[in-house]
Amino acid sequence: MIRVGLTGGIGAGKSTVARTLTERGAYLIDADVIAREVVAPGTEGLAQLVAAFGEDILQSDGALDRAALAAKAFVDDEQRKKLNGITHPLVGARAFELLEAAPADAIVLQDIPLLVENGSAPFFHLVVIVHADEDVRLERLTGQRGMPEDDARARIKSQASVEDRRAVADVWLDNSGTPDDLAALAAALWDERLVPYEGNLRNRICAPQSSEEVEPRPEWTVQATRLTNRLRVIGGDKIADVVHIGPTAASAGPAPDVLDFEVRLADGKTPADVAELLADGGFPQRSVGVHANADPGRAVSITLK
After folding, report:
1. Looking at residue 54, what is its pLDDT?
2. What is the DSSP string of 242-291?
3. From the annotation, which residues make up the binding site for ATP?
4. What is the pTM of this model?
5. pLDDT in tens, 97-106
6. Residues in the annotated binding site
7. Helix 77-100 to helix 44-53 angle, to the nearest 10 degrees?
């Protein structure tokens, strides 16, 4: 099983990617759907919201009046934190239940609008960002959804920046074209990367790595930072440090396009203590003390110290 985090700014086209991947077999966990589910009539979540914000957040039929709740919950940080303190644990618990129910060979697609903002990117095998320029998104929100322009601009500005999204993006899908263009990109991602990645991970196979040298690439540093964060999450307290080493760290001249890492184990830990953790996280063992990436889209070599 691999977990793929999907996100993008409002109006970027995330739903097109989710639909395309789901049609091809992805196991979808949609945070927005869960967020509505956990506060449906009769749920403990709705009861907690009423206790916190009052009976007037309900419609006449007993369902949540989202506009009335927003008017109370978004007036200041204290009220926003109160809302998040109720809903976030419920959404997280339900998402975990769905994840536990996924087949062992699943490609799990977790559609999370605030994935970047909540800092959860390192917990996924891959993060897919759907991007469209702000003027394109603004036109979609006002023209297709009928959203007032001021509201649309405010929603866009309140979300993560392009730079923040690029920092966590293993895959960047540009949606400046048509929905069909975007669907084609998503289908190619499924066929060429996600399916091979899941099979490699499940069978503990390292993806092939080319020895062909390339000129230094500016993205090496950003990719290395992203993978360093992921390795630290995977290893937890069994890892003392992760260091990007080798030619791609120096970027001094042509080198194979392979990111080399030295993972320094915590005191008393051995390679055997982290081998399965790394394999589950997407880095199967190549030999004792050496791991590599199961992801065919990013060559990685890891030496345990």
Report:
1. 94
2. EEEESHHHH--S-EES-EEEEEEEPTT--HHHHHHHHHHTT--EEETTEE
3. 11-16
4. 0.90
5. 999 999 999 9
6. 11-16
7. 180
